[in-house]
Structures
1.
Amino acid sequence: MTDPITGLSSMATRKVLADLTEAYHRSTGGRVAFRSMGGVDAARLIRSGAAIDLVVLASGVMERLESEGHLLPGSRTTFVRSGIAVAVPVGAPHPDLCDEAALRRAMLEGGTLCYSTGPSGDHLRQLWERWGLADEMARRAIQAPPGTSVASLLARGEASLGFQQLSEMIGVEGVQIVGPLPAEAQSITVFEAGISILSADRASCDAFIGFATGPDADDIITRNGLSVQDREDRNAASTSI
């Protein structure tokens, strides 16, 4: 049995990649082993020269890694889109999220807020700055450490209102998802897949990326709270040419 190719991802795509690697193995016999951690730590590990074949991170990080020479030029491929959701501990009242004003009230009227270190956390801080609430939220909000999910802190009762990528909160016991951020306050993160410049098996990497961004992956992706809209738009454009 050949050794699996290895991959590194952030926590937002941990569950979907676990499901996709299992489906890929059943379909092709190919083996892929992903390791997931906070996105900042993942990028740091790649920059340190870790022997990784595949990388799945937010598009902005992937662009920088490619420009720094850590990714095979031209290997970056749009994988999934991910929106931010709001969650509460099981049994807690659900705040109104009908529009941006309601979201702002929910944050002000709630107890301890929890947010992540990833792109969703960056977006929350930008919202607070825009609303003039940066100082207030700095006193009342806690940031989950890298690699720790916001949902886990909600489930332990350490926060009453949590904000993170929907894919990281689906299926967590002790947590109820209220819904996505309202459209005018939402931020969509695009995650890409790419090949490390250090990979010795680029053909296998290409094969897995092709599977993970192909139609056989659609159901797996959507049930993990992610979207394939970018890929659908690109495919539609290519078939119309």
Note: Residues 234-241 have pLDDT under 50 and may be disordered.
2.
Amino acid sequence: MSQIDQLSLRLGGISLITNEKAVRAKSRDFFWYSPVLKGALDHVTAQAVVMAQTEDDVVRTLAACFELDIPVTPRGSGTGNYGQAMPIAGGVVLDTSLMNAITRIDDGVLICGPGALMGDIETATLAATRQELRMHPSTRETASIGGFIAGGSGGVGSVRWGMLHEPGNIRSVRVATMEARPRLIDLTGLDINNVHHAYGVTGVITEVEMPLVKAEDWVEILLTFDDWQACVA
């Protein structure tokens, strides 16, 4: 019996995708923007994808993969540009996109699952309290909040609030460890930087708490120039 067959038995009712075409689609991000990475990573694919819906799904998957010695690559919505969500060692992609519940919107506080899309968060916080996240990436409509924390660094709002790693820009993060008995660890303060920008290597994000601020009336402007000198003049 293959490792993936054994994993399927251990996971029970947790969704496990093994269709080759579907697995390949979930094994990719926007790495192909770079001709160098496209050549180096185009062959990369997992053997299966686990579609986690709950924190318990994540814990059970990590425990089973640890026991079976199956590599795990966490994935949000796959909007990164550098292969961060690609399973270089094969194994399993642990997709958290279905863990997208927004459980609390309050004065200055958002709590949600890692799979919540930042565009959906903005819609919900604006409707509820006229608040927004301090910053967001250019891919906010399709990027997940867990992926932004695990792989992002800043974005629109960073001029005012600094980079994402700076104190206060992430209130807390809960992560699951990959070991025989995975632990759930709540990180605050500078400890958050143990998982921020670590791409899931040090723990899989299962819940995030972010600060909210009064919403701005943003105006998006696209400027084009004939050449670089005209741009910087």
Note: The chain is about 30% helix and 20% strand.
